[in-house]
Amino acid sequence: MKEKILEALKALGFQLEEIDDIGYDFVYEGKHYLYMYSEDDEDFLNLAIPAVQDIDKDDITPYKLMDKINSSQKYIKAYDFFDSVWLFYERELIGEEDLKKVLAKMILRLEYGYVFLHKLLSGSGEEEDSPSESADNDTNNDTDNGTDNDEDAA
């Protein structure tokens, strides 16, 4: 499955750089993303935006931000990883997904999470809504009404 995911990322136009013991780095909208694969579970798909905010262990603000993201955002989770906030999108693959479509949606949702985090930091995103409900189904769906053009964005 790892090779299929790498092929799909390349088909979306990303240049991948292997990072030892972590995964593959690629750039979207000027930000580094990581495809982090698991040798133990090839059906586990994990994308991340690393180090979006440094953490000072004496300041609880980053933890409040992570709590707000984790409680209000679908799919995106924020964790303390290597003394900084990382944004993750994790899902299980069942083998019949359109990987290009799935990866494009994951990347766009991570981008939204990044913007949401920075709105929270600036104080302007307290009541910000998540992306439209029509985009919530991120599986291969032949009845997609075309209102979610995530494929084109990546």
In short:
With 154 residues, this protein is α+β, with helices and mostly antiparallel strands. It has helices at residues 2-11, 61-72, 99-122, 150-153; strands spanning 17-19, 23-28, 31-35, 44-54, 76-81, 84-92.
**Structure summary, number of beta strands:** 6
| Name given to the CATH architecture | 2-Layer Sandwich
- Tell me the strand order in the biggest sheet: 1-2-3-4-6-5
Sheet having the most strands: 6 strands, antiparallel
Low-confidence parts: 127-154
Radius of gyration, in angstroms, nearest whole number: 16 Å
Mean pLDDT: 83
Describe it for me?
- This protein has 154 residues and is of the alpha+beta class.
- It has one domain (2-127): 2-Layer Sandwich (Yope Regulator, Chain: A), CATH 3.30.1460.10.
- It has helices at 2-11, 61-72, 99-122, 150-153; strands at residues 17-19, 23-28, 31-35, 44-54, 76-81, 84-92.
- Strands 1-2-3-4-6-5 form a 6-stranded antiparallel β-sheet.
- A hairpin with a 3-residue loop joins strand 1 (17-19) and strand 2 (23-28).
- The protein is globular and about 40 Å long.
What tags apply to this protein structure?
Yope Regulator, Chain: A; 32% helix; 26% strand; single chain; globular; 6-stranded antiparallel beta sheet; 154 residues; alpha+beta
